[in-house]
Amino acid sequence: MLTQIKGLHHVTSLASSARENNGFFTNVLGLRRVKKTVNFDAPDVYHLYYGDEAGTPGTVMTYFPFPHAARGRPGTGEVGITAFAIPKGTANAWAERLATFDVARISRDTRFGETRVLFDGPDGDRFALVETDDTRAPWTGNGVSADMGIRGIHSADMRLRDEGATAELLKFMGYEVAEKKDNITRLIVPGGNAANTIDLETLPGASHAAQGAGSVHHIAFAVENRARQLEVREALLDTGWQVTPVIDRDYFWAIYFRTPGGVLFEIATNEPGFDRDEDTRHLGEALKLPSQHEHLRAALEKRLEPLA
Ligand code: ZN
After folding, report:
1. Environment class of residue 133 by beta-carbon count within 10 Å: exposed (0-12), middle (13-18) or buried (19+)?
2. Cα–Cα distance between 17 and 44 in angstroms, integer?
3. CA pair distance 308, 296, nearest whole angstrom
4. Contact 223/178 with Cβ under 8 angstroms?
5. What are phi and psi of 89, to 5 degrees?
6. Backbone angles phi, psi at 21, to 5 degrees
7. CA of 137 to the centre of ligand 1 (A)
């Protein structure tokens, strides 16, 4: 069993309008845009990152916005809900805030004793805000006060036809079954960051998801550094997983592999971080391009949708 994985690093999804996506995460949810760059594999598309002040691993939600992309069709083989942590006693205030922005499908429930507010993002992306005792410092620069601000990612909820093989994989990765009720199994990684929870939701009769705007593209797990990442890569390869080589994403190093339930997993390093190429005070403001795409800057600045 691995001990290097410390919870989630980021969750990456697909969007249609970059401007709407940016407005939703900054103005409605109050997160900080910590990086404005492009998809390194398709540089005519943005890669937008939102999180806490520094973009600390475990707080980061990222998007590839494809203008005019069709919506995805929810189903199995994907992450159905990305959940963020909010302070205890703030679910009502959040539900009211979301309603003032005409956010769609706002509802309330309780899972494993935790109060949740569920709602849709601009492309039908499914989110939850979960009341917890999370002590991470929130970003307060976008008009959401510290006493209710989002603390970071709480969990990702994977929808699967059969949880068996995915649960086994997560246990190999260091997760332990914490709770089980009805068709949901909660796994938590001991000693992890606060984004340490994965829920597996079993839906044997449901059809497979079709990816599009509003779908989660992949989830990334955090390791401290490149040495820990290589250990994880070796262990996964030894167990028969098809893992990519290490890829430089400028703000972290990444490896990817497809899991039995259909969800794409990434293992990302906490180093070097989002202040690698701009001062923390100005994170996310300028368009940052990786060196291999810097020659495209003039064309990209003309082509990419203004965010505000
Ligand atoms: Zn990623």
Report:
1. exposed
2. 14
3. 22
4. no
5. 85, 5
6. -60, -50
7. 23
pTM assigned to the model: 0.98
CA of 254 to the centre of ligand 1 (A): 7
Locate 144 and state its tokens: 């959401």
pLDDT tens figures, 222-272? 999 999 999 999 999 999 999 999 999 999 999 999 999 899 999 999 999
Cα separation, 95 vs 152, whole angstroms: 18
Q: Is 30:139 a contact under the CB 8 Å cutoff?
A: yes
Are 117 and 104 contacting, i.e. CB atoms less than 8 angstroms apart? no
C-alpha 121/C-alpha 83 separation (Å) is 12
CA 113 to ligand 1 center in whole angstroms: 30
- Centre of ligand 1 from the C-alpha of residue 34, in Å: 15
Continuous H helices in 157-260: 164-172, 226-238
Q: Residue 226: how many CB atoms within 10 A of its CB? A: 14
- Size (the chain), residues: 308
User: What six digits make up the tokens of 305?
Assistant: 């949708």
Residue 157, phi-psi category: left (phi > 0), alpha (psi -120 to 50), beta (remainder): beta
**Tokens 């994880």 found at:** 232
Please give the domain boundaries of the chain with CATH numbers for all domains: 8-303 (3.10.180.10)
Query: Strands 78-87, 126-132: parallel, antiparallel or unpaired by DSSP?
Result: parallel
